[in-house]
Each structure stands twice: as C-alpha cells, then as structure tokens.
Amino acid sequence: xxxxxxxxxxxxxxxxxxxxxxxxxxxxxxxxxxxxxxxxxxxxxxxxxxxxxxxxxxxxxxxxxxxxxxxxxxxxxxxxxxxxxxxxxxxxxxxxxxxxxxxxxxxxxxxxxxxxxxxxxxxxxxxxxxxxxxxxxxxxxxxxxxxxxxxxxxxxxxxxxxxxxxxxxxxxxxxxxxxxxxxxxxxxxxxxxxxxxxxxxxxxxxxxxxxxxxxxxxxxxxxxxxxxxxxxxxxxxxxxxxxxxxxxxxxxxxxxxxxxxxxxxxxxxxxxxxxxxxxxxxxxxxxxxxxxxxxxxxxxxxxxxxxxxxxxxxxxxxxxxxxxxxxxxxxxxxxxxxxxxxxxxxxxxxxxxxxxxxxxxxxxxxxxxxxxxxxxxxxxxx
Amino acid sequence: xxxxxxxxxxxxxxxxxxxxxxxxxxxxxxxxxxxxxxxxxxxxxxxxxxxxxxxxxxxxxxxxxxxxxxxxxxxxxxxxxxxxxxxxxxxxxxxxxxxxxxxxxxxxxxxxxxxxxxxxxxxxxxxxxxxxxxxxxxxxxxxxxxxxxxxxxxxxxxxxxxxxxxxxxxxxxxxxxxxxxxxxxxxxxxxxxxxxxxxxxxxxxxxxxxxxxxxxxxxxxxxxxxxxxxxxxxxxxxxxxxxxxxxxxxxxxxxxxxxxxxxxxxxxxxxxxxxxxxxxxxxxxxxxxxxxxxxxxxxxxxxxxxxxxxxxxxxxxxxxxxxxxxxxxxxxxxxxxxxxxxxxxxx
Amino acid sequence: xxxxxxxxxxxxxxxxxxxxxxxxxxxxxxxxxxxxxxxxxxxxxxxxxxxxxxxxxxxxxxxxxxxxxxxxxxxxxxxxxxxxxxxxxxxxxxxxxxxx
Lengths: 382, 347, 100
Fold this sequence. Notes:
Chain A is α/β, with parallel strands linked by helices and about 375 residues long. Chain A has helices at about 20-35, 55, 60-70, 85-100, 120-125, 130-135, 140-155, 160-175, 190-195, 255-265, 285-295, 300-305, 325-330, 335-350, and strands spanning about 1-10, 45-50, 75-80, 105-110, 195-200, 200, 210-220, 230-240, 275-280, 320, 360-370, 375-380. A 5-stranded antiparallel sheet of chain C has the order 3-2-1-4-5. The interface between A and C is medium-sized, with 37 and 30 residues.
C-alpha cells in the first residue's frame, strides 16, 4: 500500500477580511477535488490541521464542522493540533491511516483565520505553542526565535546582515507565486531598515499574520503508479523540549534533525538527493537552522551558501521555498504545513510554471511546531 | 520597660529609579530651587512598573532573614504595615510570608495607619515577644506611595521597604527595645477614601496640629515615662514627610543637629510613608557601633505617633547586609517626568 | 487578562525556592511588540539564564542597562509583579532576573 497525493488546492494567503474560514476551506477543497478527478463521496476520512480556532475564535470540533460545511455526512473527521506543525501533522495522520489500511482516500485540510483579531491578541494566542514560563516572561514567538538567533550568530560569527539575506530569497520566489501574501521582491537594505520586533530579528525577517487554507486528497494504491500522483516515500515526526530552557544546544533544532534522519533512512536517500524543499521559515533564523538541521549545508555555513544563491531557483541545490515560504507566501498557521505539500506536489508534477524547479524528482517538506518542540519531515517523489 | 525584646536582623529595599525635584518642578513651571529649599528634598525613589508594596517587602524581608541567618520557618508572626497594600481585601502579609519561605505556623496581619503602620506593627510584635507568646516575629513597613499630579506631595511621596526581625533571646540582640509609647487622636490631616487613587491633605493643617503635636506629644510622654531627656540620647530618628519637619521637631525636643543627621534620609529618597522612619533608623544602624541610645518617633496621619527607645549592643558591629541601605541608596537611575507617569498609578 | 487564582496559587509555591538563586545569561532578546497584557512594559529584555545548579530558566530582565545584555552576565532571581491583571483579578507575582 503506497500513499499518493492525487489532488491539491490552495487559496491565496493574506488578509482575507471577507472570506470566512468555512469559505476558505470550501475554496481549497473544491480545487483539490477538481485536481484529483474524484468526487467528495469517495472521501473516507477528513483530517483538519489548525491551531487557533479555539484560542481565538472559541470554536473547536473542527472535524465535524468542516464535514458539515462540505456535506460529508457520517465520515470520520479529526482536528490535529501541533502549533505551527498542525498542517503537517494532519497530513501525517492521514498517511498513517492509509498505511494501516484503515482509510483508503483521505482529505487533508489546513486552515487558519487570524486577521479577525487584534495583533496583541494574536501574539498572545500564538504563545499557546510555548512553555508557561515563556508566557510568564512576556515572550513572543519572534522573541523565542530571537533568543536562538543570538546564540547562533555568536557561535558562528554571523552578522545581522547575513541573517537578513534569507528574506531576500523568500521574496524572490514569492514574486513568482500569485497566491503569495507578498508577491514582490525585497532588497537587503529594506530588510535591514525594517523595525526590530524582538532584537535581533526585524519585521522583514518575520512571517506575517495571515488567513488561508490548503487541501490535499491523499489515497493509497497498490502497485500501479498514479498519473500525476506524487508518492509519499517518508513521513517522520520527532519532538524536543517544549520550551527553550530544556534545550541543550540553542543552535540546532533536534526535533528537525531526528525527524529528517528517520525520513532519509525510511526513503533510503541522502540530503543531496533532494531537488526542492519547502522548509519552516517562520523567522529568518528558523530557515537557517532548517537548512543545516535537514543536512543541506554544514552547521554554520548555510548563510554563506544562501548569499551565493545556493537555494534560489536556477542555481539552488536544493531550491528552497519556491512558494515564498512562510515569510513571503504567508503563514496561516494550520494551513502552512499542508500548503508545503501542495507546492512540492505541483513542483514534482512539473506544473509550477514560472517558479518550476527544472527536473525536480524528489521533494521535501519540513514543518515545525513551537520553537522546535515538534517537527515533521515528509519526502515525496514523482 | 521591656525585658525580652530586641532586633535580631534588619533589611531595606529601595527601587532603582530616582526622579529629581527639579524634573517635577520644571513640568509644572515651578522654580526648582524654591521647592528644594522649602522641602529640603533633592530627589525621590520611584517604584518600577512591576514593583509594589509586596515585591519591595519581599526583598527587604529576604535581607533581614539573611542578616540574622534564621530559617524562615522559625518566624512565628509577620505584620505588614502599608498604605498601599495591593489589595483592599487579601493580606499582603501571607503573600510575602509565602515568598520568603515561611511554613504555616505563623500569625499574619496587615496594618494601616498612614505612615506609622510599620512602627505600629513593631509595637505589637514586641508585645507578643515580651509575653513570650512567640520567639521570633517579623515586621515590615512598605509603601509605593502615590500623589495627585501637581500636588505638593508629588515631590516627596516615594517608595521603599524596611524589615525587622525581632526576637526574645538577649544573646541575639543587635539592638534592644527598651520601651515605647503612643500618642493618638482623631486628626484628619491626610487621608484617602476607599477606591480613590490619590490621597488628600489639608495643606498647612498637616503641620502644627498634626505632625508636631503628635511627634512631640509622643516623645515627651516617653521622656516622662522613662525619665530621660534629649541629651541622654546619642541619636534620634523622626518620621520624614520632608526635610524640614524632623529637624524642627528635633530642635523643639532639645536634640542637636549631629544627633539627627544620620537618621535623615528624606533628601535623597523622599518619603516612603510606612518605611520612612524605619529606613532612617536602618541607615543610622549601619553607621554606628558600640552601645548607643536611640530615640525613634514615627508619625501617621489621622493621627498618631509611636515613640521608641532603643539601645544598640556590641553585636551590631558584626551584623552586615550584602545589600545594605547604602547599597540601594547608591543604586540609581534618573527618570524623566514622562517615565515617572508611566510607572506611577500602579497601585 | 484574568488569570485563574488557582493557577497563580500553584505557581506561587515554587517561587520561594527560586528566589535569590544566581546564574548567567546564555542568550537574550528585547521584546518590542508585546503580547496582550504586557504592552505597558515594552520594550523589555527577556533572558535565558543558566542557574548555578545547572537548571535553565527564561525570565524578564529588570533594573537593566544596555551593557548588562551580554553572554555570561551574572544575574539573580528577584520577586516582581508579572503583569498588571484586570481590575478585579488576582495579582500574579513571579520571578524575574536582575543583573548583579
């Protein structure tokens, strides 16, 4: 039994004031169904990735809610939550049910509605992904990653200017993605001149507040290869301490390292086999750590490579975040992990148009929850 | 005369922030020099945004505990005097005791009597010790005083805490408490109604009929009771609402400038209400040694004065706090009036 | 923001064991866009501290100056109010760090 992604759909990400979460999901699922060629009645189970519906909107029970919305009566449905990794984890759970022969065809939905609320409320809500001690200290998510950034920059003698270069790359790609929240390039100067959010991280190094939804149809098939179906060859999850005070090393996310190791072993490949990757770049430093923890570059060297263009369309090996990443495509929390799979699927099928990574055969998605408390790495192949 | 009461440990706390009288004066278009000389105050302490009467009391209490070396579970009573208790109903005393590591076998009480709530607490702890009901008791005077903008009190109302541990074993005494009296009356010179942010006062009425009548009244009563006079004492400490009143009261009671000098701290810290006379007392204790006789008279509006006779012992010399009053006095950061506004109103 | 008094009560029991403990700064940031409830305090530094006994702790830094924000700076745990609660709520007190 092999799992294949057979349909994808994604809404535009951004400040979508007039689109409700229900309509966001309807839009993404309609696209995914059309893309897959199946009808909704063939769905055996629904997995919804979302973090803040309860914290911000006082609405839980999302499995039942979206079934209701989509007209899926009686079908098993689940909300999966793992902070910013909710989408990736929803996908992982769908896969497990297919591998266990429990459900054959699954609908995976990632959705988040953030802009209905004030910035301070959102900042507060996002801290639900962190440790109590960190909330008591008045930390924010940028603050958590800033603490990691400072330790990394000290150890590897990295300047703020070096760190800012990843945002430039993200925006370069987003300019080619009509669904991105910020489909335009930015210069290093603009990043450096943006205001500090949590020193040393600046505004243009932080992913935005976004609304959006993404959907996948994932199905299990024996033997025969699916036309336009992209096979999932590994999906591994690992955890680390909830809070930063439990980490032994602030310059790596062990959860990423472990999940990646297991995924590469499962798929019998090495990092250099990956042609295209969507990594978790909630902040500039997150991307830097990801590039190294996933094995693409040696520890402390990734920024040097980034500045040389080694993750950019045309010269990258791998090309990283062709969608624009969380930073430039946007980061509706629960939707991001699912969008990453959508992007990699489109890339591997050769349907990515202007942002197509030439000859992409193997793709990787990397989705992290909290400040590294949980990580999931998926490997896909055409 | 008391037989079984002495101070076995003490500790102070002052916030880091200072605002100069001149800074407040320039905001209101007043002449700094006039105010500085009228009040004899140069600057005052300002509690930070996350400090209040409880947080300051905890640090002062920690300092007293580490001076004596007692384990907090041995303290059997804690009385906390303030006019800025964070709650109208919910005792500061138990919040502070819990933070300091007391167990459960202790009496706890919050007191209020304007600026003499701390010394009132000391009288009561002394009574418990004299009657051998307890072996060790802690008293704290702590305030994060507020004043109405533009009011004269704005120049002096400040923040600070003083903590004393008292015991009944003579060999532990750093200072023996010899005797005390109080002088009380119903005199509405300064007050604050429940729910109102700032106190009110009756201007010049707070002088003669209020401060002077009670401070002098209590001290005279104690002189008479103990058959002493000003010249018998080495030092005297009075409540300091400003720099002028304690000097005038001292003068009228027959004290000389050099007897008053070490106890005068108001010029540099302002008036931290319930901690005022107690911090002046601590400043004095940190500078002297040998057996000295000291008079301390507090004043609380509404009104009353508590007057005490203390005698230091030879053991005082060896008592040291890593974080002395002087340490906190020298730890300063000047703030602007706008920062002062940001921090205040945090009762 | 109203915090459960029971939660505050459980929390307060650990405070006395942490007070006066000393440690060193191992990383930090300055929060400039605070979460709800912390607006009036911003900007403020938050430090990751390694206590002398090896335990690591995250907390706000108080009574600080620019020059205190450096790797290895010695700090001590102090008792402060965590946030200003809503007018009817219980006041949460807790641990912050102060440069030595």
